[in-house]
Amino acid sequence: MSSGPLTMSTSTKKSADIIQLPTSQMGARVETVKVVRAAVEKKLSYLMEGLAYNVAEALFEEMRGMDEQDALACHFNVMRSLKTQSAELRGNFTALMNKSWMNTIHRKDKQGVSDAPLDVTPTLKAYSDKNLNHYKVLLEEIRQRFCSLSRREVAFHPLLPGNFYLCFWHATESLDLTYQERKLLLPLFNRFVMDRFGQVLSIANQVLIDRGVAMWDQRGER
128: closest CA among 109, 141, 115? Predict the structure, then answer.
């Protein structure tokens, strides 16, 4: 009489005590990257909308010294492009950034897009270096967490400022703009998006912490 309930209780207890096998390292890395990427993309989408909204007046500031007719023509072209192709620009940017996220998933220590032209590189480097210096400590902490996530030492990761600038530059390629008009967008991206770069980094780092991704040094695996 008493053996029935006892058997059921023991069986239930055994089921509850079954230890689930941990997910693979690859699976865990994919899930973590997806969560970090989603948080970053959400913030960037908001900032990119701000770029399109605020570009009108700021654009004239970047064209000081230009011939008036040339300035008006450039202003019209850039404004028209951002109004009609803003979704395309954001989509291009997200797709290019995703190449870097995929490299992280596959533990590749390299950027996902090609370098910028030689005449654009100094501008991008100047912007990037400023952010590298300003957020040096936070960027190193994030790098350490990406090392831990990849279980190897890595120098490159998607959240390096140079990667943001490079992806944005290439994202403008499909816009109906001249080469010079595309270059006018760089200081605007720097001003309205990368000026809040610290917020993007803080969000990403917190997600990594919440996901239990320790710093590489703390794991003692160097």
Answer: 115
Q: Are 35 and 211 in contact (CB under 8 A)?
A: yes
SS (H, E, C) 146-192: HHHHHCCCCCCCCCCHHHHHHHHHHHHHHCCCCHHHHHHHHHHHHHH
Phi, psi of 157 (to 5 degrees): -150, 160
Q: What's the chain's Rg over C-alpha atoms?
A: 23
pTM over 0.90, yes/no: no
- Encode pLDDT of 88-116 as tens digits: 999 999 999 999 999 999 999 999 999 99
Reported as a single tens digit per residue, the pLDDT across 174-197 is 999 999 999 999 999 999 999 999
Q: Does residue 147 fall inside a structural domain?
A: yes
* In-domain check, residue 3: no
How many CB atoms within 10 Å of residue 206?
Answer: 12
Residue 195 lies inside a defined structural domain of this protein: yes
Domain count within the chain = 1
Whether residue 72 is contained in a domain is answered as yes
Angle between helical axes of 25-62 and 197-210 (0-180°, round to 10)? 170
The b/e string for 40-68 (b: 16+ C-beta within 10 A; e otherwise) is bbebbeebbeebbeebeeebeebbeebee
- Domain enclosing residue 196, as ranges: 26-219
